[in-house]
Amino acid sequence: MKKVSVLPENLKEEVSDYVDFLISKYLPGESVNKKPLKFGMMKGTFKMSPDFDEPLDDFKEYMP
Fold first, then answer.
1. Do you know which InterPro entries this protein is assigned to (predicted)?
2. Cα 21 off chain centre by
3. Is 55 within 8 Å of 63 (Cβ atoms)?
4. Looking at the predicted structure, is the pLDDT value of residue 26 above 90?
């Protein structure tokens, strides 16, 4: 663990993520502190343009 203690914080987080991955892969009975998925938790993350359903100009030559 001395090796991990000398790493910068962002790399410590990557090591922690990798350890969580190994636990989930090799010790399936063990649970890692995961947030439960909730309906609507990604609300506001993605924006769709108002003209999303409009035909693209790139395909005009193929359209009647």
1. DUF2281
2. 14
3. yes
4. no
